Amino acid sequence: MKALSGAPAALACAALLCGCTGDPETKIVDATAVEHGAALFRDPSIAETRFNRYACSTCHEAIAGEAGGAMLPGAPLAGALARPHYWGGQEVDLLGAINHCLYFFMTKDLPWTADDPAAQAMYAYLESLPSDGDAAEAVPFTPIYTLSEPPPGDPGRGELIHDRACASCHGRARSGEGRLVERAPALPDRTLEEHPFGEYTERERLMVFVEKVRHGSFIGYGGQMPPFSAEVLSDEELGDLLSFYGLL
Ligand code: HEC
Ligand code: HEC
Q1: For a pLDDT cut of 70, what percent of the chain falls above it?
Q2: Which of 72, 212, 229, 240 to mutate to test the pocket of ligand 2 (most atoms within 8 A of CB)?
Q3: Domain boundaries, the chain
Q4: Could you tell me if 89 and 2 are in contact, meaning their C-beta atoms sit under 8 angstroms apart?
Q5: What CATH class does 2-128 carry?
Q6: Would you tell me how many other CB atoms lie within 10 Å of the CB of residue 33?
Q7: Which of 107, 191, 200, 203 sits at 20 to 30 Å (Cα–Cα) from 13?
Q8: Pocket around ligand 2 at a 6 A CB cut-off
Q9: CA of 97 to the centre of ligand 1 (A)
Q10: How far apart (Å, rounded) are the C-alpha atoms in residues 49 and 207?
């Protein structure tokens, strides 16, 4: 875990500064490619736009289990280089898989090319992670296209799910305290205020949550929120969460 501490970030900065000043000395970057990649993995400036607040680590563990009980929408990335395909089979190329994240979630306008120094550092870092066990297997990812009302569940469990899956971006339930993204509404209160009774039926208000969680920024919804697949969040767990929000 040393590679994830503060020191490599400083090294990576030094390496980046070299690049910025046009210094042709690229050895520093090469010598610390793994550390540089490790720092980039946790750095929102990787997307080179001030509109992005996410790091790769907002949505992915490097090594499965390292983020404790967090329910992250993206798969752990150790072993990713050896996987036969990505995004549940929708993408066969690793660079393409990463560029989807940079474009859709992190609003980076230009995709990485294979010889991009940041892409190379990221590859070096991903390659350095242990890829034993199932890590190199394709990760099941089942997006839910057809939306349905989940079964009512247990509000106590739902509160924990909010903390594990939603609070990283939305902050604490109701108040939104500690949110990462200014645009991410306090859940559920702000979203319900924005979808008042009269304009929306009870079912429509519920389905705003279901749709956003299942489709994220896809399927015409827009925005920067990642989708939660059936593997990451079961319908039962979504039912617990929506019961905690008082919607079921
Ligand atoms: C806002 C959340 C989010 C951010 C930020 C994000 N990703 Fe992802 N990423 C996802 C989701 C969701 C998927 C699709 C599910 C899956 O297969 O992991 C995905 C898929 C991937 C995959 C394919 C994994 C596989 O085996 O299917 C790779 C590789 C990947 N991301 C790398 C990155 C890297 C590198 C970064 C940082 C530059 C990044 N992602 C940033 C959410 C995110
Ligand atoms: C990686 C960050 C991130 C995570 C994790 C996340 N969200 Fe979001 N969410 C956002 C952002 C950003 C927005 C604002 C709209 C947009 O940009 O997509 C948003 C918007 C929403 C909305 C408002 C939709 C609307 O139309 O008004 C709902 C509801 C929502 N999220 C629910 C959830 C729930 C429930 C979870 C946990 C299961 C969750 N989100 C996890 C980032 C996130």
Answers
A1: 87
A2: 212
A3: 2-128, 155-244
A4: no
A5: mainly alpha
A6: 21
A7: 107
A8: 54, 58-59, 165-166, 168-170, 181, 183-185, 187, 191, 194, 208-209, 212-213, 217, 223-226, 228
A9: 7
A10: 32
CB 122 within 8 A of CB 98: yes
Question: For residue 173, which of 152, 193, 158, 194 has the smallest C-alpha distance?
Answer: 158
Six-digit token string for 243: 């019961």
Nearest CA to ligand 2 atom 37: 166
Q: What is the DSSP string of 111-142?
A: PPPTT-HHHHHHHHHHHHS---TTTTSPPP--
The pTM assigned to this predicted structure is: 0.90
Chain mean pLDDT for the chain: 89
What token pair was written down for 38?
């490790």
For residues 19 and 118, is the Cβ–Cβ distance under 8 A? Answer: no
CA 72 to centroid of ligand 1, rounded, Å: 10
Q: Rounded CA gap, 24 and 6, in Å?
A: 26
Angle at the Cα of 73 from the Cα atoms of 119 and 146, rounded to 5 degrees? 120
Per DSSP, the three-state class of 241 is helix
User: How far apart are the CA of 59 and the centre of ligand 1, in A?
Assistant: 7
The number of residues in the chain equals 248
Reduced to 3 states (helix: H, G, I; strand: E, B; else coil), residue 23 is coil
pLDDT digits (tens, 9 = 90+) for 178-199: 999 999 999 999 999 999 999 9
The torsion angles phi and psi of 123, rounded to 5 degrees, stand at -60, -45
Least confident of 13-22, 98-107, 133-142, 172-181: 13-22
Task: Please give the distance of CA 133 from its chain centroid, rounded to a whole number.
Answer: 23
